[in-house]
Amino acid sequence: MASVPKANELIAGTDHKPPKTGWMDTPVEFRPGTWCYSGKSKNLEVVGLPNPREWSPIDDDWKLPENWKEIIFEGLRERIHKYRSFQLFMDICVRCGACADKCHFFIGSGDPKNMPVLRAELLRSVYRKDFTLAGKILGKMAGARELTEDVVKEWFFYFFQCTECRRCSVFCPYGIDTAEITIIGRELLNLLGLNIDWITAPVANCYMTGNHLGIQPHAFKDMIEFFVEEIEEVTGVKIEPTFNRKGAEILFITPSGDVFADPGTYTLMGYLMLFHEIGLDYTWSTYASEGGNFGLFTSHEMMKRLNSKMYAEAKRLGVKWILGGECGHMWRVINQYMDTMNGPADFLEEPVSPITGTKFENAKSTKMVHLVEFTADLIKHGKLKLDKSRNDHLKVTFHDSCNPARAMGFFEEPRYVLNNVCNHFYDMPPNTIREQTFCCGSGSGLNTDEYMEMRMRGGLPRANAVKHVHEQHGVNMLSCICAIDRAVLPPLMNYWVPGVDVTGVHELVGNALVMEGEHERTTDLRGEPLEGMEDSDNEDL
Amino acid sequence: MGIKFSLLAVLALVLVAFLGVEAIGMNYLFGVLVPYLAFFLFLTGFIYRILKWARAPVPFRIPTTSGQQKSFSWVKQNKLDNPSTKLATVGRMALEVLLFRSLFKNTKMEFRQGPKISYQWEKWLWLAGLAFHYSFFIIVVRHLRFFMEPVPGFVHLTESLDGFLQLGLPGLYITDLLFLAAVTYLFIRRVVIPQMRYISLPADYFPLFLLFGLGVTGVLMRYFTKVDIVKVKELAMGLATLHPTVPEGIGVLFFIHLFLVSTLMAYFPFSKLMHLGGVFLSPTRNLPNDSRIRRHINPWNYPVKVHTYEEYEDDFREKMIEAGLPVEKE
To answer: Closest Cα partner for B76 from A351, A409, A371?
Structure first.
């Protein structure tokens, strides 16, 4: 983070006034901190993406294929015919500007090309030139422009400066969804071999080893067993998770970030404790060991290729249904794409909670249940013994992750769980939560270090809302149900709102969960002393 | 540049109609041929565009969910913002199309150094949009009296409601005022807000000037320099019954008005004005969020290359066995 200016300096020069030159005549400037490293050729080769080579966005020559224009036009034509959404969104925008100040990147950077309307115009202008009568005849007067290498560079810059969070689409009177435009924009870029390493590496890893980090099966098992030991230390309870076990009732899949990076690991401990306590007959899989899907950030096809493992593994293991952990875009893929792409899951059963008997009617076709739904149902039926006071040292707020919010509508379930596991819960202001929630600023594969300045800018609206409850209620814990959030919100908080930590919802569940045979808890899952236990902690030593 | 270009274009249209009728006397061209051609373009163009969109498949179910999903019986679903049934989706669409619900939610961001950011409800764009569209709609309905004999009851009713102020003679229509005020607001907003001006194209200004021109010529005819209404009706009825005639002595203002309408109709299908049809087809609004409940079919779904479990086990079998993980092939 060395190159990122201090928090108070970063925004000092930011206003939202557009430059003097028109946007078609304002070239893009690749400043450090505003772009991501390019995809490495070895990763492109693993999954067979086009034009693998070594290149950098700051090179003059991007080593595009010779017939790159033809590739783009052909790609554009194909997608216009395949996606009504895309065709419609190219045609019907009236540029009313309602979306303009809804984008976290625009708010944080002031760059007019980060207004969703203009981001879309970057692509629309090329579409008009070659696919519409008015554009062909009137050219620039109709908002059309020639496709040039500079245009492609601009696309690369701005389609990797959109997190596909869909906040703008909530406000658009025609429901124009910039995520659709960015997704297709990135697909087109990928046809030329233009992508970023923070996406292609996880994609390649996920494809070959089953998860983003490329954790091999034995190591995956080791890592989870490490947390089993940690749990025993905190609670005195020994847990025995199983892996790749045929005949288990439920397959559990969560983002691999939970397995390896703090504070997601504490959330993972929460999962393990909960499943143990209710005696769930479930298994982990090392093959389908990734809930996240960076394929979504590459192309529809890549999303399908990576997602296929979930159903394939469920079928191979013969489970009844699938339970999914806390993850944002994973749940967009599951809710809006999975069954369509890789279903029908007719080899699975309609999900029923083995503990409460609740039928998950809203998941009867995909056969995949969100863990927070599952837990909310357990709590509602009184199946969990919870000691809320174990989270009394925390004042908690909740960040609605973009995808569960705007691609699912998952608002009450996490709040219900939170209100049952902690005593101090405060929501952020209404314009910044639920369907109006602000992105963490690092979603859709942009959570990389070299991009830190843009991440801090993009995350500003979220941080600003956290700061509000931090100052008003003393909130010191930001909870969320997304693995990318858990990875990127800590540096964001550290930057804008020091003193606020980040947690998954199931870490708080794990803290509050009273387990059979546990010894008196003196610390939370992080080893922090519980309220009133500061001394007894010392006695143990 | 876009403003000037659009303004000049509309002024040129006015001039063309003026000269065409006043200097050359091509009343039949501007009174019959052009309107017919424009109407034909409007109709075929509109249908063509709708069919073109409708022909493109909707591979995925991607509603933007703006409220609580269908969940347990004890969690209240927000059916209008996150519908899971067709009926509720119709409700969502009705609110969207009739009341501009998404725009109603609009906020305005305020950015102060510190930094401190706040958001306020911004209702003016919504109000102006609503005022414009409904005024325009009512004005169109009122115009039906020129094309129908006898004039249907609902047209009379619209007229009397619209003129309920009973101010002046002929009675003032509220929608005439609202229409001009709203178009003016939408224009000023586009010019005054720096971001709006930055994103605006000639294609944004041109329809505004055109509509303003329409409104002004209409208002002039009704309230100030009267034209012969009986003859206008004769012409309109002729057009409607496919027995076109152009009575002598209708003022040139009428022909300018008619030419601007014709331009609007002809321009419509090729422009952003097609949002009128497009709004009904938007996949983020017109689909229920039910893809976990019912399988949505993608007509072009195709098989893709995947890395199978068998291949995976082949890669890692030794390590898996050593770690005590079950394998398919020992």
So the answer is: A409
Question: Which residues from B are below 8 Å from A118, CB to CB?
Answer: 198-199
Contacts of A175 in chain B (CB under 8 A): 64, 96, 102, 282-285
Q: Could you give phi then psi for residue A499, rounded to 5 degrees?
A: 100, 0
Same structural domain for residues B267 and B221?
yes
Same domain, B91 and B214: yes
Among A49, A88, A298, A497, the residue to mutate for chain B (most B Cβ within 10 A): A88
Cβ of B283 under 8 Å from any chain A Cβ?
yes
**Which CATH number is B276's domain given?**
1.20.950.20
ipTM above 0.85, yes or no: yes
Q: Residue B323's closest chain A neighbor by CA?
A: A218
Helix, strand, coil: what percent of chain B each, to 5?
A: 60, 5, 35
Q: What DSSP character marks residue B263?
A: H
Binned at pLDDT 50, 70 and 90, residue A190 comes out as very high
Chain B hits for A217, CB-CB cut-off 8 Å, are: 316, 319-320, 323, 325
Do residues B198 and B314 both lie within one domain? no
**pLDDT (tens digit per residue) in A240-266:** 999 999 999 999 999 999 998 899 999
B167-171, B223-227, B307-311: range with lowest mean pLDDT? B167-171
**CA distance to partner chain B, nearest, from residue A393 (Å):** 28
Give the residue-averaged pLDDT of B82-93. Answer: 98
The CA-based angle A220-A225-A229, given to 5 degrees, is 150
Do both B236 and B320 map to the same domain? no
The pLDDT of residue A1: 44
- Domain span at residue B317 reads 303-330
How confident is residue B125, by pLDDT bands cut at 50, 70 and 90?
Answer: very high
Residue of chain A nearest B277, judged by CA positions: A92
Q: Which residue in A447, A462, A448, A389 sits closest to A423, CA to CA?
A: A389
Nearest to B291 among A134, A335, A412 (CB): A335
User: Which domains does chain A show, CATH number per domain?
Assistant: 7-30+50-194 (no CATH), 208-380 (1.20.1050), 388-512 (3.40.50)
Q: Are residues B57 and A11, on separate chains, in Cβ contact within 8 Å?
A: no
Q: Give CA B32 to chain center in angstroms.
A: 27
Residue B293 and residue B326 in one domain: no
**Mean pLDDT over the full length of chain A:** 95
- Same domain as B103, residue B45: yes
